[in-house]
Recover the amino acids of this structure.
């Protein structure tokens, strides 16, 4: 969301909400809802521009994923970000599963809303547990990494 906002000249407003959440003044769901609301009316094509121009993987990420996949492990990307990006990462990196927030789009514009439930820390944990059940693994067998 920071990159989308930056490309649209909204980074200061989004950053202010993000910082308030990081200080514990507002919780994640409210923070995400308020930040997405700032994107209302933006052309959905901005998402592709962010993907093409700004989304970068950490150094070594692709090699690590290839090694993990070669070892037969299943991969899941669960993100508090957006399906627009996770769907593309799934295809690009041959991931087995993804789960993220869905931005609502109407008439080619962002509506400023998230469709469905918000992927927060609790939802991330529940998703890992659900996928573990689906593949017949215990959560204790999962390797989970994050940036938060």
């Amino acid at each position: 969301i920071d990159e989308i906002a930056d490309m649209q000249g909204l980074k200061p407003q989004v950053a202010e909400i993000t910082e308030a959440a990081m200080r514990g003044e507002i919780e994640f769901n409210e923070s995400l809802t308020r930040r997405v609301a700032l994107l209302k009316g933006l052309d959905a094509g901005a998402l592709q521009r962010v993907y093409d121009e700004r989304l970068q993987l950490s150094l070594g990420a692709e090699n690590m994923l290839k090694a993990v996949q070669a070892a037969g492990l299943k991969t899941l990307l669960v993100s508090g970000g957006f399906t627009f990006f996770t769907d593309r990462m799934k295809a690009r990196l041959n991931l087995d599963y993804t789960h993220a927030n869905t931005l609502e789009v109407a008439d080619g514009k962002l509506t400023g809303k998230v469709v469905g439930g918000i992927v927060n820390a609790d939802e991330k944990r529940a998703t890992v547990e659900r996928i573990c059940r689906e593949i017949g693994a215990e959560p204790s067998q999962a390797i989970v990494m994050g940036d938060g």
Observations:
- The beta strands are 76-82, 97-106, 109-115.
